[in-house]
Design goal:
The protein is an all-alpha fold. The chain has 4 helices and no strands. The protein has one domain.
């Protein structure tokens, strides 16, 4: 796995990364937290550059954008014999996997793949 650690990072960056994973998890109840999380990612991206947390931020950003793609695809195909529901279900499981895997790697001090 790619280890981008170039400079040490303070505990506040780990907390911030954990908060964004929490916001992503909460988005299963209210989608607005997913948007808040990605805004935090983009605003604080320079602060985490060159640290272990940069890979997590990029993972979280990709999770957001791919979730948007899967959600749109699901919405556009809902009328085709349940295809939209199938796509939405797979996207839902994929999203949970991404959040859980990211959280576990963060907890273990590991980076995420780029």
């Amino acid at each position: 796995m790619y280890e981008p650690v170039v400079r040490p990072a303070g505990p506040q960056l780990k907390t911030l990364t954990l908060v964004v994973y929490g916001l992503q998890a909460l988005s299963l109840l209210t989608v607005i937290t997913l948007l808040v999380g990605v805004i935090v990612n983009y605003v604080k991206l320079d602060d985490v550059r060159g640290t272990l947390y940069e890979s997590h931020f990029r993972w979280q950003i990709r999770t957001f954008w791919w979730s948007c793609v899967w959600g749109l695809l699901s919405a556009l195909t809902w009328w085709i014999f349940g295809l939209g529901f199938l796509i939405g279900g797979v996207a839902f499981v994929w999203f949970i996997y991404r959040v859980v895997r990211g959280f576990l790697n963060l907890n273990d001090g590991k980076s995420m793949p780029f």
